[in-house]
Amino acid sequence: MASLEDRFIGLPVWGKGLALVVVLALLGGAYFALVHSSVSTDLQSAQDKQKQLQDQIRDAERREKQYLELTQELANRETADRQNRRILPEDAEIAAFLQDLNRVAELSGLTIRLVEPRPEQRQELYSKIPVVLALTGRFHQMTKFFYNVSKLDRAISMENIRMTQPRQLPSGEVVIDVDVRATTYRRPRGEGE
């Protein structure tokens, strides 16, 4: 019996070529089955994972943008709420209100003859806190006082303004007396106050 090598040598050239093609086809099929299909599957799996991760990154970026927008909106609302609480506080803060009026009157050069807090008047959406003031000073000092009161952080209305006829003091200075009701407001704290 001739060996496989002897049989191969005895084949004609076209038979050797055919054997070579068969061997190469078998090696190619084995390579494809064992190596290439595994690599191809791994590559497809990696591409799918990459797409999934890119989708997650886009979703995370969208959520981060929403979070930053909401954080900014919250900060803006908190700032507005703090300012609103200065303008319309929940507590009467009558001492601070009277101190502000006194400070503005002194800065304007007025004399305060009377400060008379009145009872709080509850309304549906807010409470009024009136204070009757009697002031004496020159006309331009009065206007400065009213202007400076309008610049205070707190909501204040000046009502029932009554002025006397100007009178001349022994020093020659001309003054007027003004009676006014300065009313500030507060927001209700809620039910069961």
What are its keywords?
2 domains, about 55% helix, about 190 residues, Alpha-Beta Plaits, about 20% strand, single chain
Percent helix: 55-70%
Unreliable runs, pLDDT <50, ≥5 residues? none
Q: What is the CATH domain class of the largest domain?
A: Alpha Beta
CATH architecture verdict of the largest domain: 2-Layer Sandwich
- Compressed to H and E, one letter per element, the order equals HHHEEEHEEE
CATH superfamily of the largest domain: Ribosomal protein S6/Translation elongation factor EF1B
- Structural class by sheet pairing and helices: alpha+beta
Please tell me about this protein's structure:
A hairpin with a 4-residue loop joins β2 and β3. Helices cover about 55% and strands about 20% of the residues. The chain has two domains: about 1-85; about 95-185, Alpha-Beta Plaits (2-Layer Sandwich), CATH 3.30.70. The chain is rod-shaped. The protein has helices at about 5-10, 15-85, 95-110, 140-150, and strands at about 110-115, 120, 125-135, 155-165, 165-170, 175-185. It is α+β, with helices and mostly antiparallel strands and about 190 residues long. Strands 1, 2, 3, 4, 5 and 6 form a six-stranded antiparallel beta sheet that branches. About 10% of the residues are buried. The termini are far apart.
